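Worked example 2:
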Amino acid sequence: MQAAGLVLSRLVPTMKADGALIQFEFDPTLPIAKQAEQVLAAIADGKLSAESGKVIIDAIHQLGDIRATEELEARLVALESKSQG
């Protein structure tokens, strides 16, 4: 039975407790660096835990990567249309 419990613990991720909803000032229209600064300010003010802040900053970073990819794609399309026309 103990071995089965060990195997199960390796197969199923440990459940994390959901945190309470967090409210802090955040302007998603700002540049990525300013968004991260807003999160750091919320951590410093005690409105946001460091763990939650890291999750949010990681999400902001991923969004920045997505935006950069979209911008690069748009540039490539524009260059290709210029060279064909």
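The mean pLDDT is 88. Residues 29-85 form one domain.
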